[in-house]
Amino acid sequence: METVRSKDNTPIAYERSGKGPALVLVHGTTADHTRWAPLLPELGRHFTVYAVDRRGRGQSGDSDSYSLEREFEDVAAVVDAAGRQVNLLGHSYGALCAMEAALRTSHLRKLVLYEPSFPAEGVEMYPPGAGEKLQALLDRGDRELLLTTYIRDIVHMPEQEIGVLRSEPAWQARLAAAHTLVREMADADYVFDSKRFRRLTAPTLLLLGEKSPPFLKRPTERLASVLPNSRVVVMPGQGHAAMSTAPELFLREVVTFLTE
Question: Is the model's pTM score more than 0.85?
């Protein structure tokens, strides 16, 4: 693993592999860089891949206090370290970090966002009491139940998809990072400013799972309405984890967009 220093001097780790134009990968809540491991052989045929450990997990550092702004700066720091024409892909919470990092770097070539998480009109992100319930599980030290409760009750992932995640080597990394889950409910406080994103002209692919819940779809629809150079692709039969449940489909959409 290599590291770069973020704006607040926190070391942010990434695993570099493959050969070709730079591609930075930003995982979502509960994961770390190993989330992308099954995809790296194919991605590495086309790109030099920088798979990030977001702060607080893996080999990245952390800070005493947490804020979304620091996460945005972390991703921008990795993009700046990766070169002059960098592709950036983020998933879920990581997609929120990626879209904000895109406004903080001049090195961006293309952007892929898979269901960024932020509040959108007409949908509720978290049910009442969800934070307290998850914090209680964390205080009890029951990381397994904390993780499955979040995935099942908040992300609304079907049992079959949860089973796929459990079968991946990255599940152990998810358990290790479970303590970061509650703090990342900070995405509910994010305020989307459409005027800022109208200035983001980099070609952008917005990925949606056909079966994802409304609170994950609506932000992408909101982004699509303001980004001047974007297109939406709906992945049939998929939810919020197509990288695991339909990796060939996911890879085809991403590689085609980034190489065209």
Answer: yes
Residues 6+ apart with CB under 8 A from 111: 87, 88, 89, 98, 99, 102, 200, 202, 203, 204, 205
Residue 61, both tokens = 């550092």
Rounded average pLDDT over 113-117: 96
Alpha helices in the chain (DSSP H): 40-43, 68-82, 93-101, 130-140, 143-149, 159-167, 170-176, 194-197, 214-224, 242-245, 247-259
Domain coverage including residue 82: 2-122+190-259
Whole-number pLDDT of residue 133: 92
Total count of domains within the chain: 1
- Rounded to an integer, what distance in angstroms lies between the CA atom of residue 209 and that of residue 114? 8
Beta bridge partners of 204: 111, 230
C-alpha separations of 129 from 154, 179, 184 in Å: 11, 18, 15
Instruction: Confirm whether 109 is domain-assigned.
Output: yes
Q: Tell whether the torsion through CA atoms of 234, 240, 246 and 247 is positive or negative.
A: positive
Question: What confidence score (pLDDT) does residue 155 get?
Answer: 85
Cα dihedral 54, 68, 226, 236 sign: positive
Residues 6+ away with beta carbon under 8 Å from 7 = 70, 73, 77
Q: Please answer whether residues 50 and 22 qualify as being in contact, where contact means their C-beta atoms are separated by less than 8 angstroms.
A: yes
Say if strands 48-52 and 22-26 run parallel, antiparallel, or are unpaired: parallel
Terminal-residue alpha carbon distance, the chain? 30
